[in-house]
Amino acid sequence: MSNFRRFGVRAALALSVSVGAAAAWAADVKIAFIDPLSGPFASTGSNGLNQYKFAADWLVNDKGGIVDGSKIVVEGFDNKASPQESLIQLQVAIDQGYRFIAQGNGSSVAHALTDAIDKHNRRNPDSRVLFLNYSAVDPALTNEDCNFWHFRFDANADIKMDVLTDVIAQADDLKKVYIIGQDYSFGKAVAAAANKMLAEKRPDIEIVGDELHPIGKVKDFTPYARKIVASEADAVITGNWGADMLGLGKSLVANGYSGPIYTYYAAGSGITAAFGDSGKDVIRLVSEGQVNPPPNDDASEYYNAFKARYPDGNVDQTRIFNVIGMLSAAIEQAGTTDDVVAIAKALEGMEYDSIWGSKLMMRPQDHQLIQDMHVQVHTNEGIDFDFDGSGFGTKVESTVAMAGQDSATTCEMKRP
């Protein structure tokens, strides 16, 4: 079964004019990817950009385009993981005619972007833009700081922690937990949710540590690892990502820690290869999308095609595929490539069947995507698709269907 028959988009893409003729006058759908492409988080950003480019080609460009033959073009704008630099890049992108902004690495960046986009759109109705948040998961972004122009395609930190703490609550041998994370809005949200949910589900568990460290600045995590080992923690919870995840995890293992490390972003971008055998049955992460075992032939075909183009890359953020799939479906439904209000309204409440084994639903009241969430384990056993060419990958251990679909939101959205 082809991807487009699966999604119900093929019929819409069967254009009445030839692709060649349409391309002569069709305007591109331009997505500005504003994420770190240099510095300590460059590998995460660069692999994400490649995943965006590939998804755009696979789902749209290689099939003839959308609406009038328009292509989806994704270009990278290096924000150096800085909110201030992100605002500069946002203005550059808007000035260059980009109407869709993709970002995911860093909720502090997401907060800066969503606020700036909201203000820009109110002041400039003729050049409005949409914010496609694929990985910044501070719950506030779809609660008190929500706005009509922001759509989140990843589960928020509270939804993910709810899934993780369900798993931890069932492990009777876990009595002591250490919480550690990056010192910014997302890290604080992870810590707050972990404390709250563990107290509700396993009041007998002792929180033996709860600390934050500077984001992207710690060169040696040995002092943190030694404190964790000395605390006799049975489990560690962290929201760390990129170089901070790798540094913390490797230091923990090197200093003798052998319990589970429950994570949000501990796969791909060099992390899987760096952990290798030391991370086996230790690293666990909560995430969307099922790669191992692959849920269907479409997923296998997509993964193999991506690796053929990017041999050193990973499909470690399946939500990027979902962003392009849902955006293209919304553009088709709206019948326009430039009216972002119409496209946003098409996204609201949209249901979409992902090749990664889940039905997706964009909750209209807060623009939070609802989807299946998995707890996966780092392993080299039963792996169809590895990460980083390492022979290791992540395999699904447990699943919560449509996680967070009934979760509360404080969003009070003002619509245009």
Provide an overview of this structure:
Strand 11 (351-354) and strand 12 (358-363) form a beta hairpin. Strands 6, 7, 8, 9, 10, 11, 12, 13 and 14 form a nine-stranded mixed β-sheet that branches. By secondary structure, this protein is of the alpha/beta class. The chain contains 14 helices and 14 strands. It folds into two domains: 3-155 and 293-371, Response regulator (Rossmann fold, 3-Layer(aba) Sandwich), CATH 3.40.50; 158-287, Rossmann fold (3-Layer(aba) Sandwich). The chain is globular.
Topology overview:
Layout lengths: L2 H5 L2 H4 L5 H5 L5 E7 L6 H18 L12 E7 L4 H13 L4 E4 L3 H17 L6 E4 L16 E3 L4 H13 L6 E7 L2 H17 L4 E8 L8 H9 L4 E4 L3 H13 L6 E3 L7 H5 L7 E5 L9 H13 L8 H17 L5 H8 L3 E4 L3 E6 L4 E12 L13 E11 L13
Parallel strand pairs: 1-2, 1-3, 3-4, 4-5, 6-7, 6-8, 8-9, 9-10
Antiparallel strand pairs: 10-13, 11-12, 12-13, 13-14
Helix pairs in contact: 4-13, 5-6, 7-8, 9-10, 13-14
Number of helices: 14
Structural class: alpha/beta
Task: Determine the fraction of residues in helical runs and give it as a percent range.
Answer: 25-40%
Q: What is the terminal separation in angstroms?
A: 39 Å
CATH superfamily caption of the largest domain:
Response regulator
Give the tally of β-strands: 14
List SSEs in N-to-C order.
Answer: HHHEHEHEHEEHEHEHEHEHEHHHEEEE
Q: Give the name of the CATH architecture of the largest domain.
A: 3-Layer(aba) Sandwich
Provide the β-strand percentage band.
15-25%
Tally the structural domains.
2
- Report the average pLDDT across residues: 92
What Rg, in angstroms, do the CA atoms define? 21 Å
Q: What overall form do the CA principal axes indicate?
A: globular
CATH topology assignment of the largest domain: Rossmann fold
